[in-house]
């Protein structure tokens, strides 16, 4: 990355490529700057809090949860969450099964629901090891699971995108959906963490 | 345990990107706030792949193919959106949307602006 | 010469093959290492697993990557592999699994 030289920082080769591509596409009438800006803002508005709402709804509404597990995309749309082109599969954690998501080949992630993924999810270390030694990787994240819990790793190699429905922790009885959503982090929905009471 | 040096055939049989199961170090819990240029790359891909309707000028499959074609050392050392922007540009050239010459002229023009 | 734009989806005459496998079937991933863009990971080639679900029928990414139509479309399956079948020294529960989406043309019956 370029050094900080005050306000002026020369473009890197790759930033130059982005400017070049965008300007050429605009000059050719293929897109407009307004469309690019709108798409940037659209993605900026997508974040893990959207998935957290879905989880909280599933925790409080068993019929919704059944619909969510049957068709994740439709359930999100039912909640008014716009998820274009997303084929969402939601996998449920139980006392016997813990789920975790990876894309070993590239870094597929349910971006249209949860926004952009964290760097570590795209790293060589995560992509290589999560299918090979998930328990060791989870332990590095601070999640140690006994052997009595089976681990199910999902490698998203095709068009489906996955999200983990974590278990609702004890001690949350009577909580509102909003309060429940506040303890569901992005890492819980990837499967490298579980919701914890603050 | 002695490690076999991979032959050229080994290197072709397994793509450099196809890393599931290979040994690797600790997962560093790196995160960064995406820079605006990175967000614009992401936006360009959303627009060009026609996710929101409109014309579709490339597929995610071509994006992946061209990322997989990066030289291994470049793949490892480039950031995620650096890989994307190169791949998108390669795809546009392959599809004839943009020519190498147009790109070269544009890059020179931008450099002249300073 | 590849066209610059992709025509909006219309169903062409080429039919997708009928799904060959059912949930619960034991399948092996073909141990072949061709060139091109492939979404069947190296670590499952030649390995056996069980069909967990039929995900649907999709365009073939190997073809889509080459600016072609993606036909014939292929049934896509989630295949469940036991970790202990994938890695000789797997240290974890014997019931730990990895589930991977694999296109029908990469699978053969066991």
- Beta-strand residue percentage of chain B: under 5%
Main interface by residue count: A-B, 50 and 51 residues
Strand order of the largest sheet of chain A: 1-4
Mean pLDDT of chain B: 94
Question: How big a fraction of the residues of chain A is strand?
Answer: 5-15%
Short recap of the structure:
The complex is a heterotrimer of chains A (198), B (114) and C (110). Chain B has 114 residues and is an all-alpha fold.
Structural description of this entry:
The complex is a heterotrimer of chains A (198), B (114) and C (110). Chain A contains ten helices and four strands. Chain A has 198 residues and is α/β, with parallel strands linked by helices. In chain A, the strands form two sheets. A two-stranded parallel ribbon of chain A has the order 1-4. Chain A has two domains: 13-44, no CATH class; 48-190, Nitrile Hydratase, Chain A. In chain A, helix 3 packs across helix 4 (62-70) and helix 4 (62-70) packs across helix 5. Chain B starts with 7 loop residues before the first helix and ends with a helix. Chain B has a domain at 35-113: Cyclin A, domain 1 (Orthogonal Bundle), CATH 1.10.472. Chain B is built from six helices and no strands. The radius of gyration of chain B is 17 Å and the shape is globular. Helix content of chain B is 56%, strand content 0%. Chains in contact: A-B, A-C, B-C. Chains A and B meet through helix 1, helix 2 and helix 7 of A and helix 2, helix 5 and helix 6 of B. Strand 3 of chain A pairs parallel with strand 4 of chain C, so a sheet runs across the interface.
Summarize the topology.
The complex is a heterotrimer of chains A (198), B (114) and C (110).
Chain A: H1 13-27, H2 33-44, H3 48-60, H4 62-70, H5 72-78, E1 87-92, E2 97-102, H6 111-114, H7 124-129, H8 134-140, E3 150-155, E4 160-165, H9 177-181, H10 186-190
Parallel strand pairs in A: 1-4, 2-3
Helix pairs in contact in A: 3-4, 4-5
Chain B: H1 8-13, H2 36-48, H3 60-68, H4 72-77, H5 80-95, H6 100-113
Helix pairs in contact in B: 2-5, 3-5
Chain C: E1 26-29, E2 48-58, H1 61-64, E3 74-82, H2 83-86, E4 97-103, E5 107-109
Antiparallel strand pairs in C: 1-2, 1-5, 2-3, 3-4
Main features:
heterotrimer, A: 198 residues, alpha/beta, Nitrile Hydratase, Chain A, 2 domains, two-stranded parallel sheet, two-stranded parallel ribbon, 42% helix, globular, disordered N terminus, B: 114 residues, mainly alpha, Cyclin A, domain 1, 0% strand
